[in-house]
Design brief:
The protein is an all-alpha fold. It has two domains: about 90 residues, no CATH class; about 30 residues. The protein is built from seven helices and no strands. α1 runs antiparallel to α4 and α4 runs antiparallel to α5.
């Protein structure tokens, strides 16, 4: 039971890897260099007969199966990270969440300052100033 969490994570890595591989294969196919792409990542040896026929869907299906078996084999041999680096999918090891940059303290303070400044201006205006400011706005029908 100890490894059940990693098995789920490995399944997630394989699914995301399959999706990413299909996207990259589609791009390489339309650029005309699918065979060279598959050779570069080491998946061409099992797909040569399919590459000669030229059917992208057949090649994608077999490539995904081959990638999944290679990921499993790399996991068993303990070199999953090196294999993912070889196929340029090392980011699959990271969590599923999107990585985003958090704003620094100064940026957060600046956004709060602008919001408070607007609220203070609105609440500090007299009814006459507010009517004058709103009178400048024209409604387009």
């Amino acid at each position: 039971m100890k490894h059940a969490g990693f098995d789920e994570r490995l399944d997630s890595i394989m699914v995301r890897g399959a999706i990413r591989l299909q996207e990259r294969m589609r791009l390489a196919y339309f650029r005309g260099n699918l065979a060279s792409y598959l050779e570069r990542i080491g998946l061409a040896e099992g797909l040569e007969p399919l590459l000669q026929r030229g059917s992208l869907l057949d090649v994608q299906d077999e490539a995904v199966v081959l990638l999944a078996s290679k990921i499993r084999q790399a996991r068993k041999s303990g070199c999953l990270k090196e294999f993912l680096k070889q196929v340029n999918m090392l980011e699959l090891l990271y969590k599923d969440q999107q990585r985003h940059v958090k704003p620094t303290g100064q940026e957060q303070a600046r956004h709060k300052h602008v919001q408070v400044e607007g609220e203070n201006r609105d609440s500090a205006e007299s009814a006459k100033e507010r009517a004058l400011r709103l009178g400048r706005l024209t409604l387009i029908k």
